[in-house]
Each structure stands twice: as structure tokens, then as C-alpha cells.
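---------- Forwarded message ----------

FYI, see the DUF4349 domain-containing protein record below. Original note from H. follows.
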Amino acid sequence: MDSRGIRIAGLVALSALLLTGCSMASGGSDSGTSEPDIGMEAPADGGGVAPRDEQPFTEDEQAGSIEEDQDVIKTGWMAITVDDPIDSAAEVAALVDAADGRIDSRNETPGTETQQARATLVVRIPADRFDDVLADLRELGEVDSVQLDSTDVSQQRRDLDSRIESLQTSVDRLRSLLAEADDVGDLIAIESELTTRQSELDALTAQRDALVDQVDYSTLTVELLSEGLAPEAGPNDFWSGVVAGWNALVGFVSGLLVLIGVMLPWLALLAVLAAIVVGIIVLATRGGRGPRGGAPKTDGEGDRPA
């Protein structure tokens, strides 16, 4: 390899070292940076501490800034009993749309005489509007159960950002080397490394974007149920008992008549088949009987021996 090829190879190795140095620097920046003395102010006479009301940040402001830096994924599940789940599902969709959210899935099952009506929606709500929409959903009916979960992914977000930044720096450097290289071997080596780094960068970017979407839009599953079917009230006095018994008897007789009507054609067919079988048996029995045997008839002067 000539001197120019050696120089290009050295530049590639240098870019790898720069990538490693950026990763180490981003990982150690949090631990190596000292926290500033918030609220401390040097007076004009050179000593002492500034009064509390002169501090630039209050404790509430500090807590608020910390909460804003956190990335939290919120998920939840809510079951509500409503009068009409189908109509309530439309109301849920309207509430989510008003909050600039979206609906990922929606399933509706109309009610029947034996089955409750129900609807299930999986909605995505902006994180800053999640509590407001949750309060509005509670007004739709009787809340049966609620489950809310929160997951802090701040560290994961920072790690992804750091790795993406380092890879982007490496990709930019490799593109510069690719523009300067004129040897075919060097071009192939740089392009191969550039393709690998770019693929890693795209994968990490997609992972970071999916994580950001989960943070920005909270996920809530809303299950809407109708009230259970009420059982019929039983008799509570003598006459209502008589009526209930008569209705039961009429129902039994009606069912029995229906059963007889269904079985009548089959009974007729079985009767015909039975008559045929009996006829065959009778004919076979009569045909098997022969004339009764007896002594042969002879005249009075039968053969006598001489």
C-alpha cells in the first residue's frame, strides 16, 4: 500500500477512536460535572449567604424542572358500565379527537337477549392531556375498575441520544474521507464501514422515535359494558303462583305437542316397516308347513301273503 493508502487507513482508525472517545465523554459527562450552588449568591462585602427571597430559583421551580426532564411512559386500563356501549364508544372517540389524540383499535359488539353489549377502544392521548381525558371518561358512566402504570425511560432516552450523536459524528467523518479518497481499495473500505455505521444509526433513530412516541402519547384501553340482564321476578302470592303454574303447564303441553308433531312421520314410517316385517314372517311360517302325514289308505282286501 502506498503512502496515500496508509494515510487514508490512518484516518479511518482515527475516526473509530473519535467515536469511542465521544461515547466515553457522553457517558462520563453526567458524573463528572459538578452541580452549581443554586440559591447561593456572594454579597458585596465578600462573605455570607444571600437571603432566601433573593435566591434565583425556588424549590418548586427546581422540582418542576426535574420533572420536565423526565421521560415517562403512561399506560392504563379502564372498565366503565354505561347505558349503551355503542353510543358511549362514539363519545370516547369524540373526547380523544378533541384532545388531539388518536384511536389505535375499536371493537363493538351489539347486545342480544342473552349477551351484553360491549365496546373496547385502545386510544392514544397526548401525555399532557391524559389526566383531563381520564376525568372526562369517568363521567360517561359507573367506573368499575381503573389501572394506571408509569415507566420512567429517561436514562434509556439519554443513552439513545448519546449513541445517535456519536454515530452521526462518525458517519459525517466517513463521508468526508470518502470524498477525499481516490484509491479504489480505500473507497471500498470506507464505503463498507459507512454502510455499517449508517445502518446502526438508522436502527437507533427508529428505536428512539418509537420511544418518543410512547412518551408523547399515553396508551389507554377503555372497555365499555352494559348492565347485566335482569332475571324475571318470581311469583310472590297465591294467584301469581297459579298463573305461573298454568303458564308452565301450557308451555309443557305446547312443547309436548310440538314433539309429537315432529315424531309423527317417523312413527308412521316405523308402523309401515313393522307391518311389512310381520307379513313376511307370517308368510314364511305358513309356507314351511306341509300336509300332515298318515298311513296310506288301502282297500279292504289288501294284499295278503299266500
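H. also flagged this: The longest helix spans residues 238-288.
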